[in-house]
Amino acid sequence: MEISSHQFHLLQQLNEQRRQDLFCDCNILVEGKVFKAHRNVLFASSGYFKMLLSQSSKETSQSTTATFQAFSPDTFTVILDFVYSGKLSLTGQNVIEVMSAASYLQMTDVISVCKTFIKSSLDISEKEKDRYFSLSDKDVSSNGVERSCVYSGGWRAESSPPHPHSSPDPGTCMMGGNAWSNFNYYPTSQRNAQQQLSKHEQRQDSIKKSRHLGLQQPSDIPHYKSSKLEDRAAEPAGHAAPAEEQVHIDAEVEAPHVGFQFGQGAEVMPRDDLARMRFKCPFCSHVVKRKADLKRHLRCHTGERPYPCEACGKRFSRLDHLSSHFRTIHQACKPICRKCKRHVTELTGQVVQEGTRRYRLCNECLAEAGIDSIRIDLEAEAPLEFPQDGDKDSRWHYGEDNKSDVEIVEDGSSDLVIQQVDDSEDEAEEKEVKPNIR
DNA sequence: CTGGGGAAGGGGCCC
DNA sequence: TGGGCCCCTTCCCCA
């Protein structure tokens, strides 16, 4: 016989112990704030902690301390509350930070929920758009209302205390019709999107700090850089956007909220303009004409990087960036000597390979570098080959079944390989190359 | 410290 | 709708 409430009570007890600092054997330091928790709970909830604690547990039986700079204490509060309650308090403001923290901590469930949250924001906004068009220029009473969600698992406590990050307003609506239909959804009062962006930037700073301190970051941590996008949001009056867009954005800044916006607010856009500038980013003031462009844009908020370079492991948010990276870094497509910047041909230069990195050097620079008298070993190495269309599962490999007859010179050093340039071959190869492997 | 160049990344837009 | 190209800005490294 199974008592369904057991799991819930067990976790509730653990959460109570955490609050009372009972049996806590792990300290987590986030930007100076100390969180206490139980190793076994963290171990069971996060791939990051699993790795960390499995190492430290071998070394010591004393309490473990983990330090994080990559996210804020508020964000970690949301994560830790989820770990101990199964409830994830998401808002339009914190979803990006929570998602990136979850990515850092390797909590795939949380990442999925965040993605769903973002997606549902868009879906709901899409409906609002439809409603707007059907209502024409009528004032939309829900204007400016941002939503937040409390996602929780199947055995959610009915008497759960309100979370500091959300102000639940129960009974307003339920999400249904999707995989998350079990989750309750509470709209709440909005906060300014500007706060989201400034936090976003804060977090970015902390990531930078971490990087400069040489702290290890998982490879799929979203990397937010200070971009014109954020500059636009930070200085809505300052950026050099087209006048049409400017008008729209100025209107948005008055009442930013999650979701698409379609001329709501004090300044109602003429419908012509709405048709031209239709899709509003829920997380910044950016507006695009096409849904596909918005989808692409959202990756800079979510940190999603679905296109890995299989040569070096670096991940990209866009296929064309991956292609560009691949051509530049691993294919040595530019017919320019890396050292003297002169144009090189197959006669006047060669491809140099350092690990997975390839570039070209002219014969003079090769000679200068003293790598013109290296033994030739055709069998030892071969150029990078790439997965072809229809062979997406294949992994990159070095020269098995190499079709080109490029001459290869291998350096005596670890992994420096010189190849004779054959532009025609490269160009032919380039057309076939599809570095995207999903 | 600074300027130049390369690489990355974001947006617009065409196919 | 996705892929891809072009253009631009930002960041980082190095001389």
TrEMBL record:
It comes from Catharus fuscescens. This is ZBT8A protein. May be involved in transcriptional regulation. PANTHER family: AGAP004733-PA, ZINC FINGER AND BTB DOMAIN-CONTAINING PROTEIN 8A. Residues 191-243 are annotated as: Disordered. It is found in: Nucleus. The keyword Transcription regulation applies. Pfam families: BTB. Residues 279-306, 307-335 form the C2H2-type domain. SUPFAM superfamilies: beta-beta-alpha zinc fingers, POZ domain. InterPro entries: BTB/POZ_dom (IPR000210), SKP1/BTB/POZ_sf (IPR011333), Znf_C2H2_sf (IPR036236), Znf_C2H2_type (IPR013087), ZnFinger_BTB_dom_contain (IPR050457). Residues 24-92 form the BTB domain. Gene3D superfamilies: Classic Zinc Finger, Potassium Channel Kv1.1, Chain A. GO terms for cellular component: nucleus. The keyword Endoplasmic reticulum does not apply. GO terms for molecular function: DNA-binding transcription factor activity, RNA polymerase II-specific; RNA polymerase II cis-regulatory region sequence-specific DNA binding; zinc ion binding. Its main location: nucleus. Residues 198-208 have a biased composition (Basic and acidic residues). The lineage of its organism: Eukaryota, Metazoa, Chordata, Craniata, Vertebrata. Keywords: DNA-binding, Metal-binding, Nucleus, Phosphoprotein, Repeat, Transcription, Transcription regulation, Zinc, Zinc-finger. The gene is Zbtb8a_0.
